[in-house]
Design goal:
By secondary structure, the protein is mainly alpha-helical. The chain contains 6 helices and 2 strands; from the N terminus they run βαβααααα. Strands 1-2 form a two-stranded parallel ribbon. Helix 1 (30-45) links the parallel strand 1 (9-12) and strand 2. The longest helix has 18 residues, at 56-73. It starts with 8 loop residues before the first strand and ends with a helix.
């Protein structure tokens, strides 16, 4: 929804070693250390999101999937994001084709070219992997 704006996130998992406060600047703990490190790494790698949880194998798997998704999406243009968003809202290629005033085949071919099915599968696997944190 934000295309062409690019955001970078660092996600850290861990304990909070201080009391919960309204301002995060008044708190400390492993989750903050990891999130700062993750954000620095994301910026350095020019990756949308980096996770650091302290579990190296899981972090490697999560961040590799994110990197591959980012690599695929780096070739997407505004039209691709628009049509994907419409598909997510409307639910069928036929409806997207109607809104875009093109044939269903055009939409289907585009989704194949941008590797949409592969991105969705990777996102599903990523979600499953993250649910085990």
């Amino acid at each position: 929804n934000l295309f062409p704006v690019k955001l970078t996130f660092g996600v850290g998992a861990g304990r909070i070693s201080t009391a919960i406060r309204k301002r995060t600047s008044e708190m400390d703990g492993g989750c903050f250390v990891f999130s700062r490190k993750a954000l620095e790494q994301a910026k350095k790698l020019k990756q949308s999101v980096v996770y650091i949880t302290g579990k190296k194998d899981r972090d490697l798997a999560v961040n590799t999937i994110i990197s591959l998704i980012d690599t695929i999406k780096s070739n997407w243009k505004e039209i691709h994001y628009r049509r994907v968003f419409r598909y997510q809202c409307l639910g069928t290629l036929e409806e997207v084709a109607k809104k875009e005033k093109v044939s269903k085949q055009v939409i289907s071919k585009m989704f194949s070219q941008i590797k949409y099915a592969e991105v969705k599968k990777a996102e599903k696997n990523l979600k499953e992997l993250l649910s085990t944190l």
